[in-house]
């Protein structure tokens, strides 16, 4: 099944009962909206602080950093929020995979199915998977950032200094730096996608009685196949419009339709590649 067929099937399944899928994604969507509103509030407050400090000629880097640090909030509270939010997202994805496989929605309560992962202790291996994935992403982010800083610092910075204010050379170096930054960004996305199938593999591993660690290794095996990762990137790119609309509406469009549609399509992608 190709990408277009997967998306058509996902859309058709959701149209069978929009109310159910609205309820299924309601809690996680509200958390996204809550987080988006909080982010907007922080940005507005930062702009107001910078404007005020600039008018008083008292703006410094230390002042801005103190503001950011003071708005970090409770670390444990943020960790708890992230954990609950991630578990609910995983729960919704598991339910959507079951529906995609069965070609219909179960006549259950959407709100009740939101907490599917907490039945039969599925959340226990999910916590361990979350920790493993967090470690992987942290290591990945560190490597990417260090690599970017080293290359930019030891290659592009000396070139800029050697350019001696030659605007044409500076422009060429700036373009090369932009291309390099884009390349690093794409590589980072690809590496992040190596663990994109964890939730679905965790569900299948749980049902088969396999170790949850096997979900991690199988996700890498599936997503390091060139055909799979390229198809997944194209599938992600096809949802850019929906993602932008969701961002502009602070998550409201996702609550109404796109969150369930996108996640159902991703479930279809896994169902297509899982036997490879």
TrEMBL record:
<dbReference type="Pfam" id="PF06161">
    <property type="entry name" value="DUF975"/>
</dbReference>
<protein>
    <recommendedName>
        <fullName>DUF975 family protein</fullName>
    </recommendedName>
</protein>
<feature type="transmembrane region" description="Helical">
    <location>
        <begin position="168"/>
        <end position="190"/>
    </location>
</feature>
<keyword id="KW-1133">Transmembrane helix</keyword>
<dbReference type="InterPro" id="IPR010380">
    <property type="entry name" value="DUF975"/>
</dbReference>
<feature type="transmembrane region" description="Helical">
    <location>
        <begin position="20"/>
        <end position="38"/>
    </location>
</feature>
<feature type="transmembrane region" description="Helical">
    <location>
        <begin position="239"/>
        <end position="262"/>
    </location>
</feature>
<keyword id="KW-0472">Membrane</keyword>
<feature type="transmembrane region" description="Helical">
    <location>
        <begin position="143"/>
        <end position="161"/>
    </location>
</feature>
<keyword id="KW-0812">Transmembrane</keyword>
<feature type="transmembrane region" description="Helical">
    <location>
        <begin position="117"/>
        <end position="137"/>
    </location>
</feature>
<feature type="transmembrane region" description="Helical">
    <location>
        <begin position="75"/>
        <end position="96"/>
    </location>
</feature>
């Amino acid at each position: 099944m190709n990408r277009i067929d997967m998306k058509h099937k996902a859309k058709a399944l959701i149209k069978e009962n929009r109310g159910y899928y609205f309820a299924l994604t309601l809690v996680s969507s509200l958390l996204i909206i809550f987080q988006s509103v909080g982010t907007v509030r922080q940005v507005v407050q930062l702009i107001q602080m910078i404007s005020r400090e600039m008018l008083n000629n008292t703006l410094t880097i230390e002042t801005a950093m103190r503001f950011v640090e003071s708005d970090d909030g409770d670390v444990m509270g943020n960790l708890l929020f992230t954990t609950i939010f991630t578990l609910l997202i995983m729960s919704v994805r598991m339910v959507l995979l079951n529906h995609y496989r069965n070609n219909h929605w179960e006549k259950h309560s959407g709100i009740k199915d939101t907490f599917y992962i907490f039945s039969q202790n599925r959340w226990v291996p999910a916590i361990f998977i979350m920790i493993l994935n967090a470690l992987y992403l942290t290591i990945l982010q560190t490597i990417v950032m260090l690599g970017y800083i080293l290359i930019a610092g030891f290659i592009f910075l000396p070139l800029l200094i050697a350019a001696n204010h030659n605007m044409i050379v500076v422009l060429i170096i700036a373009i090369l730096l932009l291309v390099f930054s884009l390349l690093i960004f794409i590589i980072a996305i690809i590496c992040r996608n190596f663990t994109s199938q964890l939730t679905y593999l965790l569900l299948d591993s749980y049902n088969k009685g396999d170790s949850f660690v096997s979900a991690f290794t199988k996700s890498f095996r599936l997503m390091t196949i060139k055909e799979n990762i390229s198809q997944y990137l194209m599938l992600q790119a096809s949802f850019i419009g929906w993602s932008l609309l969701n961002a502009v509406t602070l998550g409201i469009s996702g609550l109404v339709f796109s969150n369930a549609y996108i996640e159902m399509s991703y479930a279809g992608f896994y169902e297509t590649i899982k036997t490879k």
